[in-house]
Specification:
The protein is α/β, with parallel strands linked by helices. Helix content is 35%, strand content 22%. It has a domain of 144 residues: 2-Layer Sandwich (GMP Synthetase, Chain A, domain 3). The longest helix has 17 residues.
Length: 600
């Protein structure tokens, strides 16, 4: 394994009589600034010519240095103040990641104007713009950056917001000359000042506006760097597609680069068929020092690294570690990445994971050592306290610390519900120890408490655990799965295929349709056999899979079945595909349902 330095694992565990556990890092938290833009000012002063942001344009990359970024941010800050924006009059953006959106964000936040990044899908994929109207009703922005594309304009017409200032070009705001008002507003910012409102994915209803303070952002980025000191050893370079209206891209990735004086290349690709080519193009040109992605993306990248030694060496030569989240890394993929790295650069690259949420900025626990266990979420950040509360036969993870939100905007009921009697934020995620006798070995994800259900026998099903184990059993053929069976006699799965891996396994064209794959007899039997093997090790009704169906359509972002980051919304899948669920449990299953054993 690599000799990259990591902070020591120093864990304090407190146990209560009722089974509740409290986990704390013994490392004292490192100091952090009052607000995020103190880092921008530092690097503009110390390294004004260093590239901060870059985005693809015809013929190459458009680059923005730290000195230029600060100058533009100051000009835009002054313009926003001149337009009357302030703590109660936020600035919003409907656009995709771009240099313009980054400057607007930094400009607003540094003078106490909340920034509201809005998912472009609310404008581009919605038919009634209901969620977009909800977002505007809650956040009440005074100004919105709207890309020039007509599709965004149509969406904005559906939003009734009298007096809303619309901006489509950043130069509309860069003509202002920074004055004394800017510095006065800058100096009024404290750790409690609202930096942004980030909307949740809305998996359990309309999205909620999470209040994100300057303290949350600064404490979280500092805590991550404290555990991963290599980020301070040399300026990090990141090629990243993760959207800034989500916490991983907009907080973790962006803020780490800014804190450490690194460079962020904005990737216009996505881990999706037809869009991953852009990511590959960018990675062939840029040498990142770390990556932060979903396992799906690494699965799409692996075949290209295996087939091209020169590309593998180029990409991995400067790589310190690979972050992954949203799902455990399949062990087969983990081993493939290990083999590629060892062959290309003569060393393995640490694979690190973490767990958090929009409400926790996101990192609450972080893997900061070269664990050999896939899905190891690590240990608490310095200054963060983790409470493991016995809930529904699991240990629910709850969080307290400077990274935790004070609540939701204009939603007191949800805010009260989100915190327990000791002031810990309820994650809703269950975790367990890698080794109960050695807590310092880290934590593993153990399912979503809200996704668990009971069979008709009253037996609890831990849906997250079943999903993870089932996908591991059919790896790499399965992309994801929804677990059904509430009130039924047994567990059923709606399986989403990994088209590229299925096509490769069967020797078929990579562009084969999902419908043709679902009908392929060889693939159906292959999956049935693997699930049967899984059942031999999961004989109890709480984990045994009785039948499954292969989905002929991928998860729909428009139906909120999948988030921009690739998270599968289990509830939306089961509700939106109710006819598939009913087919699973029909008295005489049709041809679309594959029965694994005699039973329900």
């Amino acid at each position: 394994m690599t000799d990259i330095p990591f902070a020591p694992r120093a864990l304090e565990v407190e146990r209560k009589w009722d089974g509740t556990l409290y986990l704390r890092s013994k490392l004292p938290p490192a100091p952090y600034p009052v607000q995020l833009s103190e880092w921008l000012r530092r690097w503009a002063r110390e390294q004004p010519a260093r590239t901060f942001l870059a985005e693809r344009i015809p013929g190459g990359w458009r680059k923005l240095a730290y000195g230029e970024a600060l100058e533009l941010a100051n000009r835009v800050s002054q313009a926003l103040l001149d337009l009357g924006l302030g703590p109660e009059r936020p600035a919003a953006s409907l656009g995709h990641n771009s240099i313009e959106v980054a400057i607007l964000k930094l400009a607003a936040m540094q003078v106490g104007i909340p920034f509201v990044p809005v998912s472009p899908s609310y404008s581009l994929l919605s038919e009634d713009f209901g969620v977009l109207r909800h977002v505007f009703a809650v956040a009440r922005p005074a100004l919105v950056y709207v890309p020039a594309e007509q599709s965004f304009r149509r969406a904005l017409q559906a939003v009734e917001s009298p007096g809303l200032i619309q901006v489509s070009r950043l130069d509309e705001l860069t003509r202002a000359k920074p004055g004394r008002e800017l510095e006065q507003a800058y100096d009024r910012v404290t750790g409690d000042t609202v930096a942004k409102y980030l909307f949740t994915s809305g998996s359990t209803g309309l999205p909620k506006a999470v209040i994100v303070t300057q303290r949350m952002l600064c404490a979280n980025a500092t805590g991550v760097c404290q555990l991963l000191p290599v980020l301070d050893d040399h300026p990090p370079v990141l090629v990243d597609w993760m959207p800034w209206h989500h916490v991983a891209g907009g907080n973790k990735n962006f803020d780490l680069v800014l804190r450490c004086g690194g460079t962020l290349y904005i990737d216009g690709g996505r881990p999706q068929p037809g869009r991953f080519e852009e990511t590959l193009r960018n990675l062939r040109e840029i040498q990142p020092t770390f990556m932060n992605n979903v396992p799906l993306a690494y699965g799409m990248l692996a075949p290209h690294l295996e087939a091209d030694d020169e590309f593998a060496h180029h990409l991995l030569e400067r790589m310190d570690f690979l972050f992954y989240g949203a799902a455990p890394m399949p062990i087969s993929l983990w081993e493939r990445l290990d083999r590629v790295a060892t062959k290309a650069i003569g060393r393995r690259i640490p694979l690190l994971s973490s767990l958090g949420s929009t409400e926790t900025t996101p990192c609450s626990v972080l893997g900061h050592w070269a664990s050999e266990v896939s899905g190891n979420l690590g240990l608490p950040l310095p200054g963060v306290e983790i409470k493991l509360a016995p809930t529904a036969e699991k240990l629910e993870m709850r969080v307290k610390g400077p990274n935790v939100t004070p609540g939701y905007l204009r939603d007191e009921a949800s805010t009260r519900k989100a915190f327990d009697e000791e002031g810990f934020y309820r994650m809703g995620d269950a975790v367990r120890f890698v080794d109960e006798s050695r807590p310092e070995e880290g934590l593993l994800f153990d399912g979503r408490i809200s996704e668990n259900f009971k069979l008709q026998t009253g037996t609890w099903v831990q849906a997250g655990t079943v999903r993870t184990d089932a996908l591991a059993a059919i790896s790499p053929l399965g992309q994801d799965a929804a677990v059904a069976g509430e009130g039924r006699a047994g567990i059923g799965l709606l399986v989403f295929l990994n088209r590229a891996e299925c096509a490769r396994a069967l020797g078929l064209d990579a562009n084969i349709s999902f419908g043709d794959l679902a009908a392929n007899a060889e693939l159906r039997e292959m999956l049935r056999e693997r699930f049967a093997a899984y059942n031999r090790h999961h004989a109890g009704s709480s984990s045994r899979i009785s039948r499954f169906a292969i989905m002929t359509e991928p998860p729909s972002p428009a139906a909120h079945e999948i988030t921009d980051k690739g998270y599968l919304n289990q509830r939306a899948i089961l509700a939106g595909r109710a006819e598939w669920v009913e087919a699973l449990y029909a008295r005489e299953p049709g041809a679309d349902v594959i029965v694994i054993h005699e039973g329900p």
